[in-house]
Amino acid sequence: MFQEGLRDVPSALSDDGTPTVCLGPDHPGSDDHDYGRRRNAVLAAALAHRPGDPAPEVEYAPDDHECWRVIRRELGIRHRTYACAAMNEAGEALRLPYDHAPQLREVSRRLGELTGFGFAPAAGIVPVEDFYGTLADGTFQATQFIRHSSMPLFSPEPDMVHEVVGHGTALADARFAELYRLVGRTVRRLATKEAVNAVSRFFWFTMEYGVVQERGEMMAFGASLLSSYGELGEFRGVEIRPMDAREMVTVDYAYDRYQPTLFHARSLTHFEDFVGDFCQNVSDESVGRLTAAGAGART
To answer: What is the pLDDT, as a whole number, of residue 14?
Structure first.
């Protein structure tokens, strides 16, 4: 079973000043010293990266490549059944390999050709204003490590599979790439933490977990769904409501289990209009009214 936990693993400096990823005792790679060493190397490379430079090359081990092959094969099968047509077309255009884990700079180069977007390496938790703000510049801050090979269909944190297969696929579609930029521009004009958090929650239920009605079926386009083997097979069984911004910014959501509530658009054109309307109208002043209205609708 795959669960996209979205729990960032903390890091620290060791006694000699070396950046170290802190894998807890329940992490699949906690007792694998080689895996820990590779994670530390990825962390150090991200910390040393200079904005504007290509993402650093990562030395993936044979286990990493095998893990990627398993995930890529299984997700590819499920995308044909559960992903919307636009995401399958974008995936074909992105041309992610099946036989090896790609370098972030390779995928970034291809995205640049398709939509002008690119990946930049993230060393860990990125401040929310910074993460969303850089979307306005066509930059998505992404992790570069791969989950532990002992559990290829599970990750306790967002890894390169989530970033590349999930968000990378969406960013290969020009319409979605522009919506990501629009979210970034929206966050940059907001001043209050409350307003930025409202946009973040909106992003969660649209870009991460969005669903569209297509050919009489509910089809996935959200990045967390596209990168989750297990949730792709089960999302149609949860409560799926029509998209409603007031509910999206107030409804409870889960980081560590499958989402109990999703929201669907009637079409991708409806989705574009919906996101555009929200981004145009959300403001520091309106967020309080929006959240109060959403909370009131649930009582």
So the answer is: 56
Question: Is 227 tagged catalytic?
Answer: yes
What token pair was written down for 98?
């099946």
Asked about 167 being catalytic, the answer comes back as yes
Largest CA distance in the chain: 59
Q: What percent of the chain has pLDDT over 70?
A: 92
Which one, of 248, 124, 108, 231, lies nearest residue 171 by Cα? 108
Does 267 qualify as catalytic in the annotation? Answer: no
pTM of the model: 0.91
Per annotation, catalytic residue among 167, 214, 228, 264: 167
Q: Measure the N-to-C terminal CA separation of the chain; round to a whole number of Å.
A: 34
Q: How far is CA 44 from CA 39, 41, 211, in A?
A: 9, 5, 37
List of residues 6+ apart from 85 with CB closer than 8 A: 214, 219
Q: At what angle do helices 286-298 and 193-203 cross, to 10 degrees?
A: 50
79 catalytic, yes or no? no
